[in-house]
Every structure is written in C-alpha cells, then in structure tokens.
Specification:
alpha+beta; Ubiquitin-like (UB roll); 4 domains; 4-stranded mixed sheet
Length: 764
C-alpha cells in the first residue's frame, strides 16, 4: 500500500496526510484531523474494539483491550487522508469488482460467524485464545464496513459518485480527489424549520464535530474557574483565617488605632512606649494663657513677646506624672480575638483618657503673679460707657473693657487646667476679666443723651486778654437740672459760673508776685493800689445767659467795672513804672525795653509823708507846667504825672541831689521828685493807665545796693549819655514862665486842672 505524501493544508494550517490505494479506487469517510482528533479517534477505536472483544470472550481484560486497540488503530490509520479544509478521509481500497465482492463476502461471513464461535469450533490444534486475533481482525473489518456503509448512506450522493468511479474505472496514476475540496459533511447540522434543513457554518460544524468526538464542550475561563472553585474557596478561607490570626497576635500587646492618652496618639504602641511618651509630655508640659493684649503697643514683636510671657511651665508648678494604672487597664480591656469589633468601637467612639498628674498647689499664686498679663504696665482698668459732651452735643462714649483680671478666679482656672491636662485656656472666654457694667448699647444712656441735646447747642467764647473761656456743651451741661427724662437750664448755676470767672480773672487789689529790676521777688499786698481788672458780674451773667438760651455760637467780651492797661495773665505787662523806696530808684519800661533808670527822692517817712507803697496804681494822666501847692507851700513843675490821688511823678528843679538816703531827712510830701532830664523821657513815652508799681524791698540784696546821692548835673550827663539828649520843647521852665504877670492867669488854670486830676491835695 502506498502511504502517499505529507503536506500542509493551506486553509486549516494543519498537517495533512494523503493515503492512496494501489489502483486509485477509493471509498472514503470523513474525519477531522488534528492532534486532539487523532487521540480521540484512537480512544474511540479502542472502545469499539474492546466492546467486540468482550462480546467474544465475555470478560474485560484491559491488557488485551489495549493490545487490540493498538492493532485496530494502526490498521485504521493506514487509510486516512486529509482534505484541503481539514477533513480527514478514511479510504477503503477496491481495486476491482471481484475483489470488492470478495471483501464483502468475507466481511459478511466474519460477521455471521463471530457471535457463535466457541472453543470446540476452532480448527484442530488451536484454542479459542489462539483464534481470537483473527476473529478480532474479522470483526474489525466487518465493523468498519458497517461504518463505511453508514457514512455512505449519510453522504449518499457524494459517495455514490465516488463509488461508481472507484468500481468502474481502471487504475489511475493520480485519481480525481475533488471530494477533498467539498464542504465537510460532518460540520453540517440539519435543523427542521418549516420543513427546510438549515446548514450551519463550517466553523460551527467543526466545533460540533470536535465536541461529539471529545464528548464535552470546549473549556472557557468561566469553565476553568468553575472547575477550580473548591480549591479557590478553600485557599481564601485559609488566607482569611491566617490574616485574622496574625492581626490578633499583632495587637496582643499594642493599642488599637484611635487610642489616645492625655492627647497622645497610642495606636500601634505598647504600654511601655505610651507611658514613656506621656511622661515626656508631662515633663515638657506648658499651659498657654490667651490674654487680652494691651492697646498701648500693637506691634507684631510686642504681641509675640506678650504671648510668650503668659505661659506656665511644668516646673513653675512642680508638675509630675502620676501613674494610676489606667494605661495598663486599657490594654487589659482589649479583646484580642475580637479585634474587628474592638477596633471599630475605638475608631467610632474615640475617647481621650484623663491621666493623673500631681503639682504643688502653693506654687500657683506665684506662677500666676509672674505672668505678663498680671503686670502693672499691662493692666488697663475697665471704664463704663458714659455720656460725653462735645461741640456737637451729647454723645455716648463706648465702654472700655480693659485688661484687669480677677486674680482669684484666674488662679482657680489655672488649677483646673492643670488637673484636666489642658494646654491652653482663653481668659476672656472663661469670663475672668473685670468688665465695665454700663454699656454703650444701654437704652437709658442713649435716651439721656438725646434729652440733653435738646437744651445744648450753644458755644460761647469769653475772651480775657490772651486767655479764653469756652462755654460749650460740656460746660452748659453743668447748668442743667434733670427732671425725669428731661433737662432744664438752671439760671443760678449760670450766675455761680460767672462768679467763678470773676474770682479767676479779676486782678483789682489782688495779691501779686513781682520780680524787681535788681532780681529780687516781692509780694504786692492785696487791697493796696487801684490798678487791675474787675468783672461786672451781673452784666456778664445776662449776656452769657442770653447766648445759652438762643444756642448761639459766638465770641463775646465780658463786661468790667474796672479795667487796666494790660489784660494778660500778668496784667502789669511789659510797660510799667517801677519805684523802689528802699533803693530810691525809678525804672520805666515800655514794651519790655528800659526807657530810663534814674535816682529819685520820695516822701519823708519821718514827717508822715511817706510815699504809698506795696501795690500797683494806674497813671491817671499827665500835664505840663503845673504848680503843686499844699499847706504852706506852692511848687511850680514842668512835668506832672499823678497816679495816687495827689501823689505823682514830677520834676523838682530846686533839688540838686537825688538818691541815697536823702528822703529820710529831706524827703518830699509824698511825690516822686525826679531829675528834669529823666522825667522828660518818661513823660514823652508814657500813656494814661500805665501801671505804677511802688514797693519796699527789705532784702539783703536790695539793702546792699543802696547808693550814695548823685548831683543833678552829673545825672543829666549820665542820662543823656545813656539814653540820648533831652531836647527842650520850647515851653521853657514853668518857674521862669510863672513869674511874669501875663502868666498868672495861666498858672491858676494849670493849678485848677491839676486839682481836678487828683482827688486830693497835690503834694510837692
């Protein structure tokens, strides 16, 4: 038998095996060829052979079954041919009609005698065992003929044509094998739908053929998982059990997640580790006190320093950790083998245990007192909200909370924080500050301010020289009387206010401090002199009351009964005449500049004509060419300037000496006798109302400066040299002028004018 040649199937990509008969005649049946199909076909052939063998022998000998199977398989596989689409053909030789008939007869004979063979029917000398291979071979050929016949009946049309060609044709070199290119009949499935067969696709038919040969459907991922489901479940159970056990073993001496002690996370830590961490935290414990910051300095550096100075450390109060066994008890209460439940409960109901510490209570007052918020420079006392009066009326001034702490409450709060283990406390939130009682939001304060504004509104300025009194809402509010929720103006309070102004600004016959030209300080006595200011209180009261009632905003001048030359606080000012009886000197200042300094001769104290002193008088006027007369005398003068009744300043040309102690033995009747050159300088620059200060200076310094008398001629030279030449105004001397007969009437007129200026008898 020619075994043919091997080639690759161009469509299936599988190995193909061609088998040809000697005469080219062939009968075929279709099989699917691949490694799996070959194995399945081999097993199927073995099963078929085994069944026949068992039918012959009546037993089941596995060794003989394998032997017969191999024989059948080798014999069977000699007649296989692969088509172009992967079909495997079983080829049966039929070289001639005679041979075919012979083969058919032989197969029929074998099939008819196979069931009835026994040991006694065997040829002589051969047992049934020896005859069994031959019988098996015949049985196999008969069974294969039946199979081929069955296949031929299934594919009747194709096999008829093939059979006719094989029986009626002679031997060919290359037989026609068109059936190799035909669709695989085994892949075709006929479904009866409305009487018509449905042809399935070739790939589906091939898969169905493989399923038929294999006896089961092809495996998928789902199928594989289904097959190994039991090992997988067992593995998962073992892994879960191992993980559960390892976790329980892991937390046998460790705390579960979410556990805290004294604010310290204890998860995954042992009791020893937690105790060490707690002790370290207690040793480094500090309590921060959040305090109000003083408003005096709001710089960032100041705020940082202030906050750091309000900290109490553990050593400040002698704090140490006291182990009360709570950490050990917490570890004992952990149920190791119930760790999932314990862990969930710990995470959901996280609680911080309160550990015990000990501290020295006697150290708390000192620790609190050393805080920055307790220092005097940082303490601002609280102030209640109140009504303030401004130029716009009454307003509610907001309260000031300040930074004053209740020391006892603060110490108690610190003590409680140490017990609780708190790291910070807010003193303001805990209400430890002493706060104001009256708040700007109080309705009563707001209503009171509104009621006051109904009678307020005036703003009056009272001028007192270089000083001014402002009568504004604040001052006017002191004149109000409150009746219920309304206010009214009290006029008597206004009158009292004017009286207080008089006491403050009146200088008439008031005591004064005076600094002399030689540098000493004297006191001018109260009630002496007639110089100064005196307020007309009634007229000023009426003027002010009217301005308040009409709510005027204006400047008004007070009304006076007595006015003076200067209205400054020092009403003597810088233009005045100063006369020292002790030193027998006179100075005249104008606008702060010395006009003249000269020796004088004042009244004789021993004769009862001492010049009045110890006060300030105002110059009543000035006159020329006067005759000053009195009891037993009449003295003509060129310059006359009275200031105290009949006492004044004038020249005395009959005197030749001035200064020294002349006044004690040869003094005037009270006037101030002055050299002609000096009196003329004063007369030319002085004005009515200029203050005249007359005093005695008994100080050692003043007494030491008492000089000797100076003659008139020398004084004239000194004065002209120092203050300038004294020019004659052309009027001449009143002494020479009064001697003429024509001037007698004028002398009488001048004397009458002098008497009118002075309230008393002029002195000489």
């Amino acid at each position: 038998m020619n075994r043919g040649n091997l080639a690759e199937d161009p469509r299936a990509g599988l190995s193909s095996s061609s088998r040809y008969s000697r005469d080219g005649g062939e009968r075929n049946s279709l099989l699917y060829v691949d490694s799996s199909s070959l194995r399945k076909e081999k097993k199927a052939a073995a099963r078929r052979a085994g069944k026949q063998a068992r039918a012959i022998k009546g037993d089941h000998n596995s060794r003989e079954l394998r032997s017969v199977g191999r024989g059948l398989t080798n014999s069977h596989m000699d007649r296989l041919e692969v088509g172009s689409d992967g079909r495997l053909f079983h080829v049966k030789e039929s070289s001639s009609p005679a041979q075919a008939q012979e083969s058919a007869a032989s197969a029929h004979l074998n099939s008819s005698i196979a069931p009835t063979v026994s040991e006694k029917d065997t040829p002589s000398g051969k047992t049934a065992e020896e005859m069994r291979p031959a019988i098996h071979k015949g049985v196999f050929e008969a069974s294969r003929s039946a199979e081929v016949s069955s296949e031929d009946s299934t594919n009747s049309e194709e096999h008829k044509e093939s059979s006719e060609k094989s029986t009626g044709s002679a031997r060919r070199a290359k037989p026609d094998r068109s059936y190799l290119d035909q669709p695989n009949p085994l892949l075709r499935r006929t479904k009866k739908t409305a009487g018509q067969p449905v042809v399935q696709p070739a790939a589906q038919a091939a898969a169905q053929t493989e399923e038929n040969h294999a006896g089961k459907a092809p495996l998928t991922v789902k199928g594989v998982l289904y097959r190994i489901r039991i090992p997988l479940i067992a593995t998962a159970i073992v892994a879960a059990s191992a993980g559960y056990g390892y976790t329980a073993w892991h937390y046998r001496n460790r705390f579960y997640p979410g556990t805290e002690f004294f604010g310290i996370p204890a998860a995954e830590q042992s009791v020893y580790d937690v105790k060490a961490a707690v002790k370290a935290k207690v040793d480094s414990y500090s309590l921060q006190l959040e305090a109000r910051k003083p408003e005096t300095d709001t710089s960032a550096a100041r705020e940082s320093s202030f906050a750091s100075d309000n900290v109490i450390d553990a050593e400040d109060v002698g704090m140490v950790y006291r182990d009360n066994g709570e950490i050990d008890n917490a570890m004992k209460q952990q149920k190791t083998w119930a760790w999932p439940v314990m862990m969930i409960r710990q995470l959901l109901g996280k609680q911080d245990s309160a550990l015990q510490t000990s501290y020295d209570d006697s150290m708390i007052p000192e620790a609190v007192a050393s805080l920055a918020c307790m220092q005097k420079e940082n303490i601002i006392k609280p102030q209640d909200a109140e009504i303030i009066l401004t130029d716009d009326g009454a307003q509610v001034q907001p309260e000031i909370y300040g930074t004053l702490l209740d020391k006892e409450k603060t110490e108690e709060a610190v003590r409680q924080a140490l017990i609780d283990g708190s790291t910070s406390i807010d003193l303001d939130d805990m209400g430890l500050y002493i706060n104001p009682e009256a708040k700007s939001s109080d309705v009563s304060l707001i209503m009171e301010a509104m009621a006051m504004n109904k009678v307020l509104g005036a703003k009056v300025l009272l001028r007192f020289g270089n000083r001014t009194e402002v009568i504004n809402s604040e001052v006017i509010s002191s004149f109000l009387d409150k009746k219920g929720s309304s206010y009214s103006l009290n006029e008597e309070k206004v009158r009292d206010y004017v009286t207080s102004l008089a006491e403050k600004y009146d200088t008439f016959q008031r005591e004064r401090e005076f600094y002399t030209s030689i540098g000493t300080k004297i006191t001018l006595e109260e009630g002496i002199g007639d110089y100064g200011w005196e307020l007309d209180q009634e007229a000023t009261y009426e003027k002010l009351l009217e301005a308040i009632r009409t709510q005027k905003k204006a400047t008004i001048e007070p009304v006076y009964t007595q006015e003076a030359y200067c209205r400054d606080a020092n009403d003597i000012g810088d233009t005045y005449v100063e006369i020292s009886l002790t030193n027998q000197k006179m100075w005249f200042y104008k606008n702060g500049k010395l006009v003249v300094e000269t020796p004088v001769v004042t009244g004789n104290p021993y004769a009862g004509h001492e010049t009045p002193s110890g006060g300030v008088w105002s110059l009543k006027g000035r006159a020329r060419n006067q005759t000053l007369s009195g009891q037993g005398y009449a003295s003509p003068v060129d310059y006359w300037m009275p200031f105290n009744n009949g006492v004044g300043i004038h020249d005395m040309q009959s005197r030749y000496w001035f200064g020294g102690t002349i006044y004690l033995g040869s003094g005037s009747h009270g006037c101030v006798n002055t050299p002609l050159s000096a009196v003329k300088l004063i007369y030319d620059q002085i004005e009515e109302g200029v203050p005249i200060v007359v005093y005695k200076d008994e100080s050692d310094e003043a007494l030491s400066l008492v000089a000797d008398p100076v003659d008139a001629q020398t004084l004239k030279s000194q004065i002209e040299e120092t203050y300038g030449t004294v020019e004659d105004d052309g009027i001449g001397s009143i002494v020479a002028w009064s001697r003429t007969a024509a001037g007698q009437a004028q002398v009488a007129a001048v004397q009458a004018q002098a008497r009118a200026l002075a309230s008393g008898t002029p002195a000489t």
